[in-house]
Design goal:
Elements lengths: L2 E8 L2 E3 L11 E3 L2 E8 L5 H17 L4 E7 L6 E8 L2 H12 L2 H8 L10
Antiparallel strand pairs: 1-4, 2-3, 4-6, 5-6
Length: 120
């Protein structure tokens, strides 16, 4: 079974130029960040990561979400962790509605199996 823990926490990732420490931030990304953690059946992590990279990164970013990073737990080969960011809670709600009700996951449902079910 695919298990996940999701936490939504306020977080401001800002970039400050090192050569001008008094300069204002040049970029602000994602005041709202989700930490998503998946525990997979043995041997399924790389399969999920390939699918995730191929199907889910661009489709989420097209809807205003930002895939901030992906992490492999070196101590647990059945663990996949990633971060997803949003500008604010209203845009998060809309982006999630559009993504989970959109063509990427609808296509998976029409095939008789949602993508994440393949890893149970």
């Amino acid at each position: 079974m695919l298990k996940f823990l999701m936490a939504t926490v306020p977080f401001a990732a800002q970039v400050f130029p090192m050569e001008k420490p008094d300069a204002p931030p040049t970029e602000t990304c994602c005041p709202i960040v989700e930490l998503r953690q998946y525990t997979l059946h043995p041997g399924k992590r790389d399969v999920l990561i390939d699918l995730f990279d191929r199907e889910f990164v661009e489709s989420q970013e097209a809807l205003g979400m930002k895939v901030i990073g992906q992490f492999r737990n070196l101590d647990n080969p059945n663990r996949f962790v990633w971060l997803r960011g949003f500008q604010d809670m209203p845009s998060r709600a809309q982006a999630l509605k559009d993504f989970y009700g959109g063509p990427v996951l609808e296509g998976a449902s029409r095939s008789g199996q949602r993508h994440h079910d393949r890893f149970q």
